[in-house]
């Protein structure tokens, strides 16, 4: 089992470094495992948007392509969406994402 560390900024602006992300977790599952208040209402199926977060630019570039179902959901939260928005349930663990900075999206 491998693990990387990321930085998470919560909805209150608190910044935590060294948050562990295990290789069998999506980014959403990592946030939930670390007790961040992510509802993940759809269970990680890219259909609810409650796991929406913002990535730092470099991580966004490395995190893989946004698939059509995720794109459709991001379109429904147009007001909140930013250029580096992702549904964290669709971001897979990758060693290259060590040091990622993730800002949890608004409720
Ligand atoms: S958990 Fe529902 S879209 Fe990610």
UniProtKB/TrEMBL annotation:
Mention any Pfam family matching this sequence.
Answer: Fer2
Q: Cross-referenced PROSITE patterns, in alphabetical order?
A: 2FE2S_FER_2
| UniProt-listed CDD domains | fer2
- The organism's place on the tree of life at top rank: Bacteria
Which segments constitute the 2Fe-2S ferredoxin-type domain? Answer: 4-107
Q: Which cofactor does it need?
A: [2Fe-2S] cluster
List the SUPFAM superfamilies.
2Fe-2S ferredoxin-like (SSF54292)
> What keywords would UniProt list here?
2Fe-2S, Iron, Iron-sulfur, Metal-binding
Membership in a protein family: Belongs to the adrenodoxin/putidaredoxin family.
Q: What protein name does the entry list?
A: 2Fe-2S ferredoxin
- Recorded source organism is Brachybacterium fresconis
């Amino acid at each position: 089992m491998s693990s990387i560390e990321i930085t998470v900024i919560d909805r209150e602006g608190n910044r935590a470094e060294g948050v562990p992300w295990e290789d069998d977790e999506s980014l959403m599952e990592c946030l939930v495992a670390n007790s961040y208040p992510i509802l993940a209402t759809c269970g990680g199926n890219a259909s609810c948007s409650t796991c929406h977060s913002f990535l730092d630019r470099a991580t966004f570039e490395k995190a893989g392509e946004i698939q059509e179902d995720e794109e459709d959901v991001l379109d429904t939260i147009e007001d909140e969406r930013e250029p580096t928005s992702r549904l964290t349930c669709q971001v897979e663990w990758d060693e290259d994402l060590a040091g990622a900075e993730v800002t949890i999206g608004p409720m």
